[in-house]
Amino acid sequence: MNKFYLTTPLYYVNDKPHLGTAYATITADVLHRYHELLGYDVFFLTGTDEHGQKVQQAAEKRGLTPLQHCDEMVKNFKNTWDELNIGYDIFFRTTAEFHKQAVQKCLQELWDKGDIYASDYEGWYSVAEEIFYTEKDLVDGKSPTGREVVQIKEKNYFFKMSKYQQQLIDHINNNPGFIQPEFRKNEVLGFLRQPLNDLCISRPKSRLSWGIEIPFDKDYVTYVWFDALLNYATGVGYQQPDRKADFDKWWVDTGPMHLLGKDILTTHAVYWPTMLMALGVRLPKVIYAHGWILNRDNAKMSKSFGDVQQPLELKQKLGLDPLRYFLARDIHLGNDAPFSVELVESRINSDLANNLGNLLSRTSQLVGKFFEGKRPAYTKDDEASTALKQAALALGAEVKKDIESMRPSFALEKIMQVLTLANRYLEEKAPWKMAKEDPASAGHVLSTVLEVARIATVLLSPVMPEKTAEILKRLSAPEISWKSATTWGGIQEGAAIEKGDPIFPRLELTKG
To answer: Which CATH class name applies to 341-486?
Structure first.
């Protein structure tokens, strides 16, 4: 059985989930559910990054210990992911004891082999990003992302990242799919054309106590990125002898696919692989950088402009599965994309209410009116029904190809195209007229349309688990499997076809 190990970034615990983090996590969940449908053995990891200066400062302001603060903030993420129907296998926390011990083992190993050294350091530090910058990195006296920086001089420990620069360049060049999309790979290679500095991997406890203690110097804690990045490996058993089988299965034999925002690509595509090279561990299978969700003016959403969208508020307004559908359908993975209620309303109404919903509604009503609410018998295919049937049966292979190529939006577009064909077929055949003179042929048309809708619904199930389960129940064909998505005849003759209320009511949020 093929295996698929998928990760989101660990989200910084000091922020509440917003639409950007929800987009990344929903996208990962959609990919994870599609791979399950395809028959893969899947493991899906998400979680929170809980150490660092921002957490320590926030906890102090609230009069809590850092761990108490983290425990409270983690509830926001877990609750939001549960509300958004995220089917993760592990919610990882960097404060977990097994992770701390594994990080310390890694640090000790690199220290013992001479890949970590002590040195005085002077540079510009961004508390918001927990990153040091050199003078040449600054833009108008701030970090490249516009954050405030302070000058710091202190002794720290450094990882010999520069030692692995050429090895990383060679790996990227020899493994074309390692960094995706392609233009992100070119960005990383461009970054690596410059000399690579060694990575500061410690913070003195005098300045920051909330972190994993350096095993060879009790006066220091680990830099938050060195700690957090290791989660992808420790989460499946790395540096834990009693979990060797897990680590072999998900990392050694499979290799992870990391899905992450483009703003943290350098840490994942440069820091992380060089750390793994130094530790003698295989590199990830794929590092995939997704784009940003933009506001209606095509700018990044920000708190200062007041246009950050809250996912649970959007769920209340739009419905959960329609929200999931929009994010998977309208954003080509890897690209930036605008978000507005108007765009969501337009997409949901055209694809879900008018296309899939209308098809189900009309067909089930006609079956109720002319065939006592039971699926009619098939008779003989004509040219039109044969073409529609072939399009539906070819759909699974198209969806599989797009999902395995990290193109979920294209897969959904193809499903909608087949549903459009089914609506056109229904219009052309007009079974409501045919039923009076040739009920057998009318029944064949309706059964053909119902079966196309069933196949499309199964193929949409990873995106809209709740709505699709409801549709399949109404069609008396509840099975969701790859076989059911790629074979004809899932609705038995005589099976009850339930009419019910519109499965996707039209949204009218922007009227008035």
So the answer is: mainly alpha
Model confidence over 40-82: pLDDT tens digits? 999 999 999 999 888 998 999 999 999 999 999 999 999 999 9
Which of 506, 480, 182, 460 is closest to 329 using CA atoms? Answer: 460
The H-assigned helical ranges of 331-407 are: 341-347, 358-370, 383-404
Q: What is the pLDDT of residue 512?
A: 52
DSSP tag of 301: -
CB contact set of 20 (below 8 Å; sequence gap of 6+): 261, 292, 293, 301
Beta-bridged to residue 202, according to DSSP, are 222
Q: Are 429 and 405 contacting, i.e. CB atoms less than 8 angstroms apart? A: no
Q: Give 445-493 pLDDT, tens digit per residue.
A: 999 999 999 999 999 999 999 999 999 999 999 999 999 999 999 999 9
What's the full length of the chain, in residues? 512
pLDDT at 307: 60
Q: What is the DSSP string of 370-385?
A: HSTTBPPPP----HHH
Supply 338's token pair.
């605008």
According to DSSP H, which parts of 280-347 are helical? 311-318, 320-330, 341-347
Q: Residue 486 half-sphere exposure, CB side, CA atoms within 13 Å?
A: 12
**pLDDT tens digit sequence for 369-405:** 999 999 999 999 999 999 999 999 999 999 999 999 9
CA distance 447 to 380: 12
Q: How confident is the model at residue 129 (pLDDT cuts 50, 70, 90)?
A: confident
**Whether the Cβ atoms of residue 295 and residue 20 lie closer than 8 Å to each other:** no
289 bridge partner residues: 260
Q: Which value, in Å, is the radius of gyration of the alpha carbons in the chain?
A: 26
How deeply is 400 buried, as exposed, middle or buried, from its count of CB atoms within 10 A (0-12, 13-18, 19+)?
Answer: buried
Alpha helices per DSSP H over 84-178: 97-112, 165-174
CA 348 to CA 278: how far, in whole Å? 48
